[in-house]
Write a structure and sequence with these properties.
This protein is an alpha/beta fold and 175 residues long. It has one domain (4-117, 124-173): Dihydrofolate Reductase, subunit A (3-Layer(aba) Sandwich), CATH 3.40.430. It is built from 6 helices and 6 strands, in the order E-H-E-H-H-H-E-E-H-E-H-E. The longest helix is centred in the N-terminal third of the chain and has 11 residues, at 33-43. It is globular, with a radius of gyration of 15 Å.
Length: 175
C-alpha cells in the first residue's frame, strides 16, 4: 500500500489563504537555499500528485512555462513529468500526465493508494475531505519564508476541517 503525504503552506495562525483567498503571503520573504533544495529533491522523487481544482489550475498555469523552466528547472521537470490526479467536478485536465478522479474522493484515493505513493500539494480542501473520511496522513506543513498571520478563509483548525494535527515542517526530517 502506498503512502499518502500532504504538503501545505500554512500561516502561523493556521490558514491556507488570507480573507480574500489570496496565497501570495506563502511566497513572501527571503530566498532559502535549504528549502529550495528540499523542494527540488521532492519534485524529482517519483510518486503521483493529488491536486484539487484550484491548486491544479495554479500549477498548470506556471510549471509548463518557460518562466518555470528558467526559475526552477529541476522542479519544473519533475512537476511536468509527474502523474497528476485531479479532484474536481468541473475541470477537464489538459496538463501532461493529468487524470480526473471520478466519483467519491475517498474511495478514489483508496484505489490509487493500492499501487503508488500520493502527495497532496496545497489543495487544503482535498486534504480536509480525506481527513474527514478517516485517512491518517503524513502531514508536513510550513509557514512562509517570512512567517505571516493570514487570518484567512481555509483553516487547519480541527473545528473547521478534517485535520487533527499539524506537525512543523523540518526539511531534514521530511526526506
Amino acid at each position: 500500500m502506498g503512502k499518502l503525504q500532504v504538503f501545505e503552506s500554512i500561516s502561523v495562525d493556521g490558514y491556507f489563504t488570507d480573507p480574500r483567498g489570496d496565497l501570495s503571503w506563502a511566497h513572501a520573504g527571503t530566498e532559502d537555499p535549504e528549502f529550495d533544495d528540499w523542494v527540488g529533491n521532492n519534485a524529482s522523487g517519483g510518486g503521483a500528485l493529488l491536486l484539487g481544482r484550484v491548486t491544479y489550475q495554479m500549477m498548470e498555469a506556471f510549471w509548463p512555462t518557460p518562466a518555470a523552466e528558467k526559475q526552477m528547472p529541476r522542479v519544473a521537470k519533475g512537476m511536468n513529468a509527474a502523474r497528476k490526479y485531479v479532484a474536481s467536478r468541473t475541470l477537464k485536465p489538459t496538463w501532461t500526465n493529468s487524470r480526473l478522479l471520478e466519483g467519491d474522493l475517498v474511495e478514489a484515493v483508496k484505489t490509487l493508494k493500492r499501487g503508488e505513493d500520493l502527495t497532496v500539494l496545497g489543495s487544503g480542501n482535498v486534504a480536509a475531505q480525506l481527513g474527514e473520511g478517516g485517512w491518517s496522513m503524513g502531514i508536513s506543513s510550513w509557514s512562509s519564508r517570512s512567517p505571516s498571520a493570514a487570518g484567512g478563509r481555509c483553516s487547519t483548525r480541527p473545528e473547521s476541517s478534517g485535520w487533527s494535527s499539524i506537525a512543523p515542517f523540518d526539511p531534514a526530517r521530511s526526506s
